[in-house]
Specification:
235 residues; alpha+beta; 2 domains; 5-stranded mixed sheet; 31% helix; elongated
Length: 235
Protein backbone atom coordinates (compact mmCIF):
# COMPACT_ATOMS: atom_id res chain seq x y z
CA UNK A 1 0.00 0.00 0.00
CA UNK A 2 2.86 2.38 0.68
CA UNK A 3 1.50 5.56 2.22
CA UNK A 4 0.18 5.68 5.77
CA UNK A 5 -3.08 7.26 4.67
CA UNK A 6 -3.73 4.36 2.30
CA UNK A 7 -3.10 1.92 5.11
CA UNK A 8 -5.45 3.82 7.40
CA UNK A 9 -8.18 3.76 4.76
CA UNK A 10 -7.83 0.00 4.30
CA UNK A 11 -7.83 -0.60 8.05
CA UNK A 12 -11.02 1.46 8.36
CA UNK A 13 -12.65 -0.59 5.62
CA UNK A 14 -11.74 -3.86 7.31
CA UNK A 15 -12.89 -2.63 10.73
CA UNK A 16 -16.25 -1.78 9.19
CA UNK A 17 -16.66 -5.45 8.30
CA UNK A 18 -17.12 -6.34 11.95
CA UNK A 19 -15.30 -7.12 15.17
CA UNK A 20 -14.35 -10.64 14.03
CA UNK A 21 -12.33 -9.40 11.08
CA UNK A 22 -8.58 -8.80 11.26
CA UNK A 23 -6.04 -7.87 8.64
CA UNK A 24 -2.39 -7.68 7.72
CA UNK A 25 -0.92 -5.63 4.89
CA UNK A 26 1.81 -7.26 2.82
CA UNK A 27 3.88 -4.43 1.34
CA UNK A 28 6.95 -6.29 0.09
CA UNK A 29 7.68 -7.11 3.71
CA UNK A 30 6.53 -8.75 5.91
CA UNK A 31 6.26 -12.09 4.14
CA UNK A 32 3.03 -14.02 3.90
CA UNK A 33 4.36 -16.50 6.47
CA UNK A 34 5.07 -13.68 8.92
CA UNK A 35 1.57 -12.25 8.41
CA UNK A 36 -0.05 -15.65 8.93
CA UNK A 37 1.90 -16.17 12.15
CA UNK A 38 0.78 -12.74 13.33
CA UNK A 39 -2.86 -13.44 12.54
CA UNK A 40 -2.74 -16.93 13.99
CA UNK A 41 -1.31 -15.63 17.25
CA UNK A 42 -4.27 -13.24 17.39
CA UNK A 43 -6.66 -16.21 17.26
CA UNK A 44 -7.57 -16.04 13.58
CA UNK A 45 -8.49 -19.41 12.06
CA UNK A 46 -9.94 -18.39 8.68
CA UNK A 47 -8.05 -16.14 6.27
CA UNK A 48 -9.05 -14.65 2.93
CA UNK A 49 -6.03 -13.45 0.99
CA UNK A 50 -6.93 -10.60 -1.39
CA UNK A 51 -4.05 -9.62 -3.70
CA UNK A 52 -3.97 -5.87 -4.33
CA UNK A 53 -1.70 -5.40 -7.33
CA UNK A 54 -1.53 -3.32 -10.51
CA UNK A 55 -0.54 -6.32 -12.57
CA UNK A 56 0.69 -9.87 -12.33
CA UNK A 57 2.56 -12.38 -14.42
CA UNK A 58 3.25 -16.10 -14.29
CA UNK A 59 6.32 -15.62 -12.06
CA UNK A 60 4.30 -13.66 -9.50
CA UNK A 61 1.47 -16.21 -9.51
CA UNK A 62 3.88 -19.12 -9.03
CA UNK A 63 5.67 -17.38 -6.17
CA UNK A 64 2.39 -16.53 -4.46
CA UNK A 65 1.14 -20.10 -4.72
CA UNK A 66 4.44 -21.39 -3.30
CA UNK A 67 4.14 -19.06 -0.33
CA UNK A 68 0.57 -20.17 0.27
CA UNK A 69 1.54 -23.86 0.20
CA UNK A 70 4.39 -23.22 2.62
CA UNK A 71 2.12 -21.28 4.94
CA UNK A 72 -0.58 -23.96 4.82
CA UNK A 73 1.93 -26.69 5.68
CA UNK A 74 3.11 -24.72 8.71
CA UNK A 75 -0.33 -23.59 9.85
CA UNK A 76 -2.51 -26.48 8.70
CA UNK A 77 -5.12 -25.62 11.32
CA UNK A 78 -5.82 -22.33 9.54
CA UNK A 79 -8.25 -22.23 6.62
CA UNK A 80 -6.67 -20.11 3.89
CA UNK A 81 -8.31 -19.06 0.64
CA UNK A 82 -7.15 -16.69 -2.07
CA UNK A 83 -9.44 -14.42 -4.05
CA UNK A 84 -9.00 -13.05 -7.52
CA UNK A 85 -6.86 -9.88 -7.46
CA UNK A 86 -8.52 -6.62 -6.55
CA UNK A 87 -6.45 -5.28 -9.43
CA UNK A 88 -5.79 -5.27 -12.35
CA UNK A 89 -9.12 -3.71 -13.16
CA UNK A 90 -9.96 -1.70 -16.27
CA UNK A 91 -11.45 0.98 -14.02
CA UNK A 92 -8.12 1.39 -12.22
CA UNK A 93 -6.38 1.66 -15.58
CA UNK A 94 -8.87 4.35 -16.58
CA UNK A 95 -8.29 6.28 -13.39
CA UNK A 96 -4.53 6.13 -13.88
CA UNK A 97 -4.86 7.30 -17.47
CA UNK A 98 -7.10 10.18 -16.42
CA UNK A 99 -4.76 11.31 -13.66
CA UNK A 100 -1.83 11.22 -16.07
CA UNK A 101 -3.82 13.13 -18.70
CA UNK A 102 -4.87 15.72 -16.12
CA UNK A 103 -1.28 16.21 -15.04
CA UNK A 104 0.01 16.52 -18.59
CA UNK A 105 -2.82 18.93 -19.45
CA UNK A 106 -1.83 21.13 -16.55
CA UNK A 107 1.81 21.00 -17.59
CA UNK A 108 0.84 21.78 -21.18
CA UNK A 109 -1.25 24.72 -20.07
CA UNK A 110 1.53 26.12 -17.95
CA UNK A 111 4.00 25.54 -20.77
CA UNK A 112 1.87 27.49 -23.23
CA UNK A 113 0.42 24.58 -25.20
CA UNK A 114 -3.04 25.57 -26.53
CA UNK A 115 -6.11 23.50 -25.70
CA UNK A 116 -8.55 25.75 -27.59
CA UNK A 117 -8.31 27.56 -30.93
CA UNK A 118 -10.80 30.31 -31.76
CA UNK A 119 -11.25 31.36 -35.38
CA UNK A 120 -13.02 34.56 -36.42
CA UNK A 121 -11.73 37.81 -37.82
CA UNK A 122 -8.41 36.50 -36.64
CA UNK A 123 -7.17 33.41 -34.80
CA UNK A 124 -6.47 33.05 -31.07
CA UNK A 125 -5.09 30.11 -29.12
CA UNK A 126 -5.83 29.64 -25.42
CA UNK A 127 -4.03 27.41 -22.92
CA UNK A 128 -5.49 25.76 -19.85
CA UNK A 129 -3.87 28.47 -17.74
CA UNK A 130 -5.40 31.17 -19.96
CA UNK A 131 -8.85 29.76 -19.19
CA UNK A 132 -8.07 29.68 -15.47
CA UNK A 133 -7.11 33.37 -15.59
CA UNK A 134 -10.21 34.64 -17.40
CA UNK A 135 -13.19 36.27 -15.65
CA UNK A 136 -16.56 34.56 -15.69
CA UNK A 137 -15.51 31.52 -13.66
CA UNK A 138 -18.24 29.25 -12.28
CA UNK A 139 -16.98 27.33 -9.27
CA UNK A 140 -19.87 24.85 -9.30
CA UNK A 141 -21.37 24.22 -12.72
CA UNK A 142 -24.18 22.30 -11.00
CA UNK A 143 -25.74 25.63 -10.09
CA UNK A 144 -26.23 26.24 -13.82
CA UNK A 145 -26.65 22.67 -15.08
CA UNK A 146 -28.14 20.42 -12.37
CA UNK A 147 -26.42 17.05 -12.14
CA UNK A 148 -23.11 18.28 -13.55
CA UNK A 149 -19.97 18.59 -11.48
CA UNK A 150 -16.89 20.72 -11.97
CA UNK A 151 -15.81 24.22 -12.79
CA UNK A 152 -16.75 26.14 -15.92
CA UNK A 153 -16.26 29.42 -17.71
CA UNK A 154 -18.86 31.46 -19.58
CA UNK A 155 -18.16 31.39 -23.30
CA UNK A 156 -18.88 35.10 -23.69
CA UNK A 157 -15.63 35.80 -21.83
CA UNK A 158 -13.72 34.02 -24.61
CA UNK A 159 -15.24 36.18 -27.35
CA UNK A 160 -12.82 39.03 -27.67
CA UNK A 161 -14.40 41.78 -29.83
CA UNK A 162 -11.34 41.63 -32.06
CA UNK A 163 -12.21 38.02 -32.91
CA UNK A 164 -15.92 38.41 -33.56
CA UNK A 165 -16.89 39.15 -37.16
CA UNK A 166 -19.49 41.77 -37.94
CA UNK A 167 -23.03 40.40 -37.66
CA UNK A 168 -22.00 36.88 -36.51
CA UNK A 169 -24.62 34.20 -37.04
CA UNK A 170 -23.22 31.00 -35.57
CA UNK A 171 -20.53 29.44 -33.44
CA UNK A 172 -19.29 26.07 -34.67
CA UNK A 173 -17.86 23.81 -31.96
CA UNK A 174 -15.45 21.13 -33.22
CA UNK A 175 -14.63 17.95 -31.31
CA UNK A 176 -11.04 16.72 -31.11
CA UNK A 177 -11.46 13.94 -33.66
CA UNK A 178 -12.94 16.52 -36.09
CA UNK A 179 -15.63 13.97 -36.92
CA UNK A 180 -18.29 15.87 -34.99
CA UNK A 181 -19.22 19.53 -34.88
CA UNK A 182 -22.20 21.45 -33.56
CA UNK A 183 -23.55 24.70 -34.93
CA UNK A 184 -25.11 26.98 -32.33
CA UNK A 185 -26.70 30.40 -32.92
CA UNK A 186 -24.22 33.09 -31.90
CA UNK A 187 -26.53 34.77 -29.40
CA UNK A 188 -27.31 31.47 -27.69
CA UNK A 189 -23.63 30.48 -27.43
CA UNK A 190 -22.69 33.95 -26.17
CA UNK A 191 -25.52 34.36 -23.67
CA UNK A 192 -25.93 30.81 -22.33
CA UNK A 193 -22.89 28.76 -23.36
CA UNK A 194 -20.46 27.33 -20.81
CA UNK A 195 -17.23 25.41 -21.12
CA UNK A 196 -16.73 22.79 -18.42
CA UNK A 197 -12.95 22.49 -18.18
CA UNK A 198 -11.90 21.68 -14.64
CA UNK A 199 -12.84 19.33 -11.78
CA UNK A 200 -11.51 19.85 -8.26
CA UNK A 201 -8.86 22.20 -9.55
CA UNK A 202 -7.57 19.76 -12.18
CA UNK A 203 -8.11 19.68 -15.99
CA UNK A 204 -11.28 17.92 -17.10
CA UNK A 205 -10.47 14.23 -17.82
CA UNK A 206 -10.89 12.93 -21.34
CA UNK A 207 -13.43 10.32 -20.25
CA UNK A 208 -15.62 13.15 -18.95
CA UNK A 209 -15.41 15.17 -22.14
CA UNK A 210 -12.12 17.02 -21.70
CA UNK A 211 -10.31 19.15 -22.50
CA UNK A 212 -13.46 21.25 -22.93
CA UNK A 213 -17.10 20.24 -22.76
CA UNK A 214 -19.76 22.56 -24.13
CA UNK A 215 -22.88 22.94 -21.99
CA UNK A 216 -25.87 25.14 -22.78
CA UNK A 217 -28.28 25.26 -19.83
CA UNK A 218 -31.95 24.86 -20.67
CA UNK A 219 -31.35 23.43 -24.14
CA UNK A 220 -32.00 19.73 -24.64
CA UNK A 221 -30.36 18.57 -27.85
CA UNK A 222 -27.04 17.16 -29.07
CA UNK A 223 -25.69 20.65 -29.74
CA UNK A 224 -25.99 21.63 -26.08
CA UNK A 225 -23.57 18.99 -24.76
CA UNK A 226 -20.47 18.57 -26.94
CA UNK A 227 -17.48 16.67 -25.57
CA UNK A 228 -13.79 17.07 -26.41
CA UNK A 229 -14.07 20.56 -27.90
CA UNK A 230 -10.73 21.89 -29.11
CA UNK A 231 -11.71 24.45 -31.76
CA UNK A 232 -14.52 26.96 -32.32
CA UNK A 233 -15.32 29.05 -35.38
CA UNK A 234 -17.24 32.32 -35.37
CA UNK A 235 -19.15 32.73 -38.65
Amino acid sequence: MGEERSRDAMVSAVEAMGEGTRMAILDGQPTLEYALNHLHSAGVDRIALVPFILGSDETFDVKLQEEIKTAESVKNEVDLAISSPLCPDHRIAGILADRAAQTFSKLDGMAGVPILRIGGKRQADLTYQDLCDLPGQIDDVGTEVPGRHGEAIRIRHLLDPELVPSQPKEVVFHACDDEFSARVPFEMARDKGLFLYRIEGEPLPVNQGGPLRLLIPGIDDHCSNVKHVFRIQLI
